[in-house]
């Protein structure tokens, strides 16, 4: 299997990283965000938290998209999703073309994967969920990084966070750092020679088992941008621990698995349910 053929979900890794719980991307229009994430993709707005106009949380199985209402952010790379309704997804997205005309929205099939962009240009690769998996989910986040950074990024996760990471060739002298999670998800840092836009503040949130040691290592390096103790901390700079050289910026919201939000039940509606032909007891996806 080549690096470009990596499955969306990887076999469960022996990793202290338990879950990639959410990706946070600001967006300026909840109406358009609802059309894309809820009506189109079939996900569910969280009915309990962030239900006002200043933010919206969208449940994607046991993961979420966090979408504060501000100027749009664009992730430098792509978000990999798995959904159990991939075959039906183009028919669900097609009616949105008129409503989202004039935005960056678009989609096309690429082999067995559906490639699409949100109204503000964020890229998503949508894959079929494994057989028997009823819930959708965020499978991976792949970030575009400058050439020569993958090995140092892998060392940053391995030596400072204490989680397994590896480097695989991409071809043409480029490499990818692969950080697998115990959940089967992964963070992927793919080197590219294409110019990258400045970092705009988007972030990912990860749960880390027994986070105290990693928290101490990042704090000792002066890397924390928020420090509420080992249960809740953030850092943005990925560095090469060998020489302290900054390699990439991506805010990581780190939580220990003792955090009160860990394991919170997320409601997921069944997007196939309709008023016409309503089926009692099938409003919510199992799991």
Can you put this structure into words, describing what you see?
The chain is α+β, with helices and mostly antiparallel strands. It has one domain: 2,3-Dihydroxybiphenyl 1,2-Dioxygenase, domain 1 (Roll), CATH 3.10.180. It contains five helices and 16 strands. The chain has helices spanning 30-40, 89-93, 96-99, 150-161, 212-220, and strands at residues 17-24, 44-45, 57-60, 63-66, 77-83, 106-110, 113-117, 123-128, 137-145, 166-171, 174-180, 186-191, 203-208, 224-227, 232-240, 245-256. It has an eight-stranded mixed beta sheet. An eight-stranded mixed beta sheet has the order 6-7-8-5-9-12-11-10, covered by helices on one side. The longest helix has 12 residues, at 150-161. The protein is globular, with a radius of gyration of 19 Å. The protein starts with 16 loop residues before the first strand and ends in a 31-residue tail after the last strand. The mean pLDDT is 95.
Main beta sheet strand tally, sense and closure = 8 strands, mixed
Radius of gyration: 19 Å
Structural classification: alpha+beta
- Tally of extended strands? 16
At the fourth level of CATH, the homologous superfamily is: 2,3-Dihydroxybiphenyl 1,2-Dioxygenase, domain 1
Q: Which whole number gives the mean pLDDT?
A: 95
Task: Classify the fold: give the CATH topology.
Answer: 2,3-Dihydroxybiphenyl 1,2-Dioxygenase, domain 1
User: What number of structural domains do the residues give?
Assistant: 1
Low-confidence stretches: none
Helix content: 10-25%
- Spell out the helices and strands N to C: EHEEEEHHEEEEHEEEEHEEE
Write out the strand line-up for the largest beta sheet, numbering strands in chain order.
2-3-4-1-13-16-15-14
Known CATH architecture: Roll
Report the end-to-end length measured between terminal Cα atoms.
31 Å
What's the helix count?
A: 5
């Amino acid at each position: 299997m080549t690096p470009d053929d990596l499955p969306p979900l990887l076999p469960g890794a022996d990793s202290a990283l338990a879950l990639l719980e959410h990706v946070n991307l600001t967006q300026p229009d909840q109406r358009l965000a609802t059309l894309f994430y809820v009506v189109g993709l079939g996900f569910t707005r969280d009915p309990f938290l962030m239900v006002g106009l200043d933010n919206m949380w969208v449940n994607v199985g046991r993961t979420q998209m966090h979408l504060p209402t501000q100027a749009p952010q664009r992730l430098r790379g792509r978000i990999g999703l798995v959904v159990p309704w991939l075959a039906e997804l183009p028919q669900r997205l097609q009616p949105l073309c008129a409503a989202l005309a004039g935005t960056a929205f678009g989609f096309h099939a690429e082999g067995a994967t559906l490639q699409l962009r949100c109204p503000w240009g964020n890229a998503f690769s949508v894959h079929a969920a494994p057989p028997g998996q009823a819930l959708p989910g965020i499978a991976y986040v792949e970030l575009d990084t400058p050439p020569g950074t993958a090995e140092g990024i892998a060392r940053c996760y391995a030596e400072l966070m204490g989680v397994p990471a590896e480097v695989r060739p991409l071809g043409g002298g480029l490499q990818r750092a692969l950080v697998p999670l115990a959940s089967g998800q992964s963070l992927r840092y793919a080197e590219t020679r294409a110019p990258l836009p400045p970092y705009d503040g988007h972030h990912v949130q990860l749960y880390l088992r027994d986070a105290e040691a990693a928290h101490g290592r990042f704090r000792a390096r002066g890397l924390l941008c928020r420090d509420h103790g080992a249960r809740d901390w953030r850092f943005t700079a990925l560095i090469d621990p060998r020489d302290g050289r900054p390699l990439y910026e991506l805010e990581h919201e780190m939580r220990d698995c003792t955090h009160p939000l860990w394991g919170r039940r997320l409601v997921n509606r069944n997007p196939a349910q309709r008023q016409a032909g309503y089926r009692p007891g099938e409003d919510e996806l199992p799991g």
